[in-house]
């Protein structure tokens, strides 16, 4: 299946009824927008003993990620529609997440509690995650994957292709990091652009949106409920006592079949 959330696009493979093994080579081949299908992330649906289903995520470079908020929301929407339900539980490497119908065609997912201790994100050494010792004074947050958030005066003034690539591999982040540049619009309103590790610039990112909302609230820049404008549209984040809830639209674009010839061409 091909899906997207605010332009953040995914290929989704349902592996619950067979023994397909999704490899890094397959993920990279499908990610190729010229010779494959193209995606920001690949999501694999599996069976779970803890929840209604399990999700495993691959980045476009074949690396694994423990979280992908927009893909989780898109898959939750499809599963709820298929099952005729208004709520669902989803197992990920970040924990078991709750999803629910938010009305008006929107879907809400609890992305779990943020990680704000340096060793949980992880960072390479002990430090205050609210003020990293880096140019630009960023904030580090974990949402199952690491995030580095820079608050700037004007997101349009920064070349994210250069900026994101530079900070993704900063030595403070041993597992690399997602990079966000964020402009404060108001006490409950932010503008954000995203560089995702292993992928590059994306039109939107659910986990990045959650991390940015947490970072802004910790800095005292916003309340714990914010609307975020991304390149691909708007998403609403609510940092509650039980986790960070993300609400936004979803789109199921098409279903397809990978041909035997394509699969035989893989390394």
Short summary:
The protein has 267 residues and is an alpha+beta fold.
List keywords for this structure.
267 residues, alpha+beta, Diaminopimelate Epimerase, Chain A, domain 1, 17-stranded mixed β-sheet, 19% helix, 37% strand, globular
Rg from alpha-carbon coordinates: 18 Å
- Please state the structural category: alpha+beta
Mean pLDDT: 96
What summary fits the major beta sheet? 17 strands, mixed
- Helix proportion of residues, in percent? 10-25%
Structurally, the number of domains stands at 2
Unreliable stretches (pLDDT < 50, length at least 5) are none
CATH class of the largest domain: Alpha Beta
Task: Write up what this structure looks like.
By secondary structure, the chain is an alpha+beta fold. It has 2 domains: about 1-110 and about 250-265, Diaminopimelate Epimerase, Chain A, domain 1, CATH 3.10.310.10; about 140-240, Diaminopimelate Epimerase, Chain A, domain 1 (Roll), CATH 3.10.310. The protein is built from 5 helices and 17 strands. It has helices spanning about 25-30, 70-85, 160-170, 205-220, 260-265, and strands spanning about 1-5, 10-15, 40-45, 55-60, 65, 85-90, 95-105, 105-110, 140, 145-150, 180-185, 190-195, 200, 225-230, 235-240, 245-250, 250-255. The protein has a 17-stranded mixed β-sheet that branches. A hairpin with a 4-residue loop joins strand 4 and strand 5. The protein is globular. The relative contact order is 0.17.
């Amino acid at each position: 299946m091909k899906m997207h959330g605010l332009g953040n696009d995914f290929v989704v493979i349902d592996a619950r009824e067979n023994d397909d093994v999704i490899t890094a080579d397959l993920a990279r081949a499908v990610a190729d927008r010229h010779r494959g299908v193209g995606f920001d992330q690949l999501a694999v649906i599996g069976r779970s003993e803890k929840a209604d289903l399990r999700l495993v995520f691959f980045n476009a470079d074949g690396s694994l990620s423990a979280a992908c908020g927009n893909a989780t929301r898109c898959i939750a929407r499809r599963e709820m529609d298929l099952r005729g339900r208004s709520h669902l539980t989803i197992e990920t490497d970040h924990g078991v997440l709750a999803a629910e119908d938010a009305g008006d065609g929107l879907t809400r997912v609890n992305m779990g509690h943020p990680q704000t201790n340096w060793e949980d994100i992880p960072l390479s050494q002990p430090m205050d995650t609210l003020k990293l010792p880096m140019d630009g004074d960023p904030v580090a947050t974990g949402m199952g994957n690491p995030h580095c958030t820079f608050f700037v005066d004007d997101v349009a003034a920064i070349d994210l292709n250069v900026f994101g690539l530079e900070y993704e591999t900063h030595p403070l982040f041993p597992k690399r990091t997602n990079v966000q540049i964020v402009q404060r619009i108001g006490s409950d309103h932010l503008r954000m652009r995203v560089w995702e590790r292993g992928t590059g610039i994306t039109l939107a990112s659910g986990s990045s949106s959650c991390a940015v909302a947490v970072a802004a609230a910790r800095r005292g820049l916003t309340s714990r409920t914010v609307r975020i404008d991304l390149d691909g549209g708007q998403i609403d984040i609510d940092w509650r006592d039980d986790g960070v809830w993300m609400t936004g639209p979803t789109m199921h674009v098409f279903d397809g079949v990978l041909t035997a010839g394509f699969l035989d061409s893989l390394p």
